[in-house]
Fold each of these.
Amino acid sequence: MDMEVKQLRNTVVVKLDGEMDMLMAEKLKKDIDQRLLNKPIANLIIDMEKVTFIDSSGLGAIIGIYKKINAVGGGIAMLGTQPHVKKVLVFSGIDKLVNIYSNECDDIMDEFR
């Protein structure tokens, strides 16, 4: 799985590509943890358009990151989840913590204003 991360002020955008398994979950958690130590993150946007699979370690990473960002008053949004990945997110209850959007739209930024 590939991961591209960009940060603009207090917003981080992560583009994931491939399977969100144990290896990618650890990579994502470490990157976000490091960024939280260096600069405040108020908003995290995870582009899931190219994610083909997510397992329990991926779900755990998202929940852990949510807790850390929520603790500093921030929020998380997910974009472009494939139907089978979105089904896992909904069944796990993550959709109650994280806003999930089918694609990029201006409404997402309203969420963080």
Amino acid sequence: MSLEFKKVRSTLVVRVSGEMDMLIADKMRAEIDKRIDDRNIKNLVLNLEKVTFMDSSGLGVVIGRYKRITAKQGRMFIVGARPQVEKILFFSGVNRLVPLYKSEQEVINI
């Protein structure tokens, strides 16, 4: 798993690559939270384009970041999820909390 971070105005874009599972959940949570807290971040975009696998620990990271960003009156978006990851997001109900989009460009302009 690797994370790439980009700040666009008050939005943090996190590009995730690899597997989102219990082996990386704590590291991922800490890295994202550090950037949310250290910078003037109001919104969060998780780009899951290169995520090949997600388990319940990965879902926990997503839901936890949703709670954290909405507590700051911000918004969260997921972009680029592959069909197998998108299916997990739908079955778990995460898509009812966090809107799913095809590309970063769609949400950066919101």
Amino acid sequence: MISLAHAQTAAPATPGFADFLPLIIIFILFWFMLIRPQMKRAKEQKKMLGELAKGDEVVTASGQLGKIAKIGEQYVSLEIADGVITHVQKQSIQTLLPKGTIKGL
């Protein structure tokens, strides 16, 4: 009556370049959109920290605004008001401001 249909066995798929192409494209986009800009910012931050000098006006990561009174290896003395000096880690300095910014506030 009805003969049984036997399915053919599928040939094993060999992974090729086309199978990995979407993964490679995602990695390239990830590199150019996230990793590369972050490395560039880190390089600029390191350069800025190396060029700090006494009298520079800076903003720390916590938002403190002040003038550098003394620079050490790892710490910076920051004058936040007349006669008020705080000590912060050098890495916490986020932004170097133009001269005269504090007086303008």
Amino acid sequence: MSAPVKIGDLRNRVQIESAARASDGGGGATVTWTAVADVWAAIWTRTSGETFEHDRTAGRATHDIWIRHRAGVKPEMRIRSGTRVFDILGVIDVEDRARWLKLPVLERDL
């Protein structure tokens, strides 16, 4: 079995970002996101819909983002494509061959 993604499907230039937490001096923390890498990706929508959260209607969409294998990608990271932000839900090494990563993600409603 081979991965369904082809090199030509990698049409989206995305940033992989990592969070850094710094104390705000009041017992909380400030989170800043730092770019780890710019990579080419295929973004495929799986589901979409709406939910009612925090007294408002919020859109939800799940996607699979495919990238070439890259060490160090973790679910604590996120993907940014322009103004779109995707929380990484998992990191799958497709066929355990270190060729492709499949990242199930949840798109944030900004």
